[in-house]
Specification:
This protein is an alpha/beta fold. It has a single domain, classed as Lysozyme-like (3-Layer(aba) Sandwich), CATH 3.40.80.10. About 35% of the residues lie in helices and about 10% in strands. It has a 6-stranded mixed sheet, with helices on both faces. A hairpin with a 5-residue loop joins strand 3 and strand 4. The longest helix is centred in the first third of the chain and has 22 residues. GO terms for molecular function: N-acetylmuramoyl-L-alanine amidase activity. One of its GO terms (biological process) is peptidoglycan turnover. InterPro entries: Amidase/PGRP_sf, Amidase_domain, NAMLAA_amidase_2. This is N-acetylmuramoyl-L-alanine amidase.
């Protein structure tokens, strides 16, 4: 009798876990991985050590933040090429701090198509001081002649909801908002003078996304 009850309990537990999993929002993506080789792995580990002061055996993160960006490149293909190579080309101001190319986990085209460039928990260089805990989302376009679209807003909302259902997210910020984390325990950058000015993706885009994810109670700045 006890064995039957134990078996029934296990079946019910598995059914409960399956039901919880089925309630998680799914994310429709096109898998288009950027180059991940021994060079990118080594440079990622080096970046974690030199820039963040974090020693790891594998370049992984536990996502606690989502950072939204625009690519400042007008096309999907041009944006993808900018992230694809492991070693950074041009952008001398960034090269002096690391040879690791910039990248993100997700890239969103004008029509809202989501491309997965890296696994959620793989380290990517996209936001000074915060990469070690942040998933990056790049949106093709800019704030000028190639504005971000409503379809991109909706895609970013889906990404945030998907990540929040799987990881201990606490923060949702635009790249232009990252300065607020300086001089806090969350900021991990070994050079206090390493900072770049950002305007992306802008207040209007962030407000449009935040409006639809308010129930998640994600913060835009650290508690003082």
């Amino acid at each position: 009798m006890e064995k039957r009850l134990l078996l029934l309990n296990n079946i019910l537990l598995l059914a409960f876990v399956a039901a919880l999993a089925s309630c998680r929002p799914t994310l429709k993506v096109v898998n288009r991985p950027i180059v991940w080789d021994s060079t990118r792995r080594a440079l990622s580990l080096e970046y974690l050590s030199r820039r963040h002061g974090i020693e790891k055996s594998e370049p992984t993160i536990i996502p606690k933040m989502v950072v939204l960006h625009w690519t400042a490149i007008p096309t999907l293909e041009g944006s993808f090429r900018a992230f694809d190579k492991p070693v950074l080309e041009g952008r001398a101001n960034l090269q002096t701090n690391s040879a690791l190319n910039v990248s993100v986990q997700f890239l969103v085209d004008y029509d809202g198509t989501i491309y997965r460039l890296l696994p959620d928990t793989t380290f990517a260089r996209h936001c000074i001081g915060l990469n070690y805990m942040a998933v990056g989302v790049e949106n093709v376009g800019d704030g000028g002649g190639h504005p971000l679209t409503e379809a991109q807003v909706k895609a970013n909302i889906r990404i945030v909801k998907y990540l929040a259902a799987r990881y201990p997210l606490e923060y949702l910020i635009g790249h232009h908002e990252y300065y607020a984390f300086r001089n806090t325990p969350l900021w991990k950058e070994t050079d206090p003078n390493y900072i770049t000015q950002k305007t992306d993706p802008g207040n209007a885009f962030m407000e449009a996304v935040r409006k639809k994810v308010r129930r998640l109670k994600l913060k835009s700045k650290p508690a003082l």
